[in-house]
Design brief:
450 residues, mainly beta, Neuraminidase, 2 helices, 31 strands, globular
Amino acid sequence: MSAVFPPGTRWPGRLVALGCLWAAATAHSAVFRFVSAGPITASASQTRLSRTPGGNLVCDASGVFHLIYTEWPESAVANVLVNTPDEPSRIYYTRYEAGAWSPPERVNNGYLPDQREIGGGHPSLCARPDGTVVAAWHDARHTTEAGTFIDNYEIYLDRRPPGGTWSPTDERFTHTDAGHQGDNGYSPQMALGADGRVWIAWQDFFADYNVGDIYAHASDASGQFASRPMSQMRKTVYQSGSGRGSFWQPSIAEDAAGLVHLVWTEGFAASAPLWTMTLSATGEVQSLDKFVTTGGNNLDPPRLARSPLGNLYAAWTDRRHGNGEIYLARLIGGATTFTDSRRITMDGAVSQHPDLAVDADETVHLVWSDNRDRVYNVFYCTYRFSGDQLGEAVKLTSTTGSAQHPAIKLSSRGEAMIVYEDNRSGNFELYAILGLATTGVPARAWEALR
């Protein structure tokens, strides 16, 4: 079982090595002093975030950070999409409030018909205005041994009411049953709408076992999902791609006009095309465009975030220079295309796994993994399109292993929380860094403005 290390410990200000790190965005934005928020997990397992880690970490309107993650057996292949009853994965939840991480809570409860435990993976979270936390993940309980436990992954949900606990019976979200090997849905990501609806986007092989498409569906204003046929939730047709294979790893957000936007990657190879789609408030496709031809890949998909003003920003790893560099683009609320882009890193090393959050001043706070020091560490910087203001890159970690897949969120109290994976101890564990605002406009999570 996963263990928060150590439960209830108060961390801000404890780690002197981080206490001297300051990062200024602009004269008008939050200036953060970074301190340790402690190791989050301590186990003999592989504790991992999802391939789009921004969905693992959310901040609610009261300033509480919520985190969901997957614990894989130590012998399992790192960050895989599948698992077996011999090596079941488990999904856990913790939250950071009053300077402490809470003890972990088990989320998924997956069992085969013969009662052998089997897991799920790549979860994401959404914090609703009423304080309910919603979790989504892909789940293997409908797979079969004859299909090597990869023949019918479904998307599952669970809910944690305010002050309550996760349900012991999970909620099945998709009912595909396509009747072919490889009928799998993977990697759900969620976004909260202004009207309280929860949007879920995921990749699914329902229509073709060789090629995945992008699917999406929204709840009602109370957060409850009505059943829909898979055909009504399908938003892409794989023939519309570039011949590279499946559409993978969507990220989703709603803009100020109520339009819902998605970005994702195509195929497995590096320098894969990145796509963007706009949906109406009722889920009809308004636009579908390939906006980058030299993006990341299935293991490093693009990330999408919304500003408090309702503009959207996408960050991705770009391969046009041979190595990986971080790029950023902006979409003004109400539009259907990204009109601005900016190269963020220019160090010649491999920069990858970006994530981003945007404050009330439209300053983008970016984190990523970078091997400019021959090992991967987490870096941070800020950028504003107004005035083309790029902040200095700040190195936040000095690991002896590999620090990667960072996620960042901003709170209503003027804090930035960064969570990342690190294998300095031999297996991957989760660590956190807290940014404390010192001057300027407090960074506000957009959820707090709802």
